[in-house]
Records
---
Amino acid sequence: MPTDEEKIRVIAREVVREEIQPIVQNSVYETLVQVGIDPSDPIVAQKRAQTVARITQLLDKGGIVAFTTLVGLVVTGVLITVWNMITK
């Protein structure tokens, strides 16, 4: 006959599976979506997560100037493209 402690463990496992796990899964999903990672495609999600990690490491290493320069180059390229489309 199972002890009270064993019964509690069985009940706790069921609670985790039925109630807590869906809450955690939903929280993780929502968090990924909020940072721009689509969890429905695991390969793309992994690549995006790695990109976010690289950007974070770059910023942590004092690469704010490099990151700002990169963003500036991208924005400049987009503006030049738009300007060329308008003036043609």
---
Amino acid sequence: MSVIPIFKKSALSTECDQCGVLFDLMHGGVCDRCQRILCRTHLHGSWLRRLRVDLGAPSTCVDCRAGRTPAPPPKRSRPGAPPPAR
């Protein structure tokens, strides 16, 4: 008899625009202000903030809440991407 998985790990992942770490989309998100895709550390900063977002608070990143200008995303090479222009 085969087992049907109910809670399966997501197959979708992306890179954090701040640190470049590959993460599951369920553990991060997009900042409402700067529109960057961020891991949970750079988006929420703490579990308490994550809880507030889950209860309806706006999803703003640590940099935007602190009033800092977000750093530009790091330049990374992705598989299948054309080489960077020189």
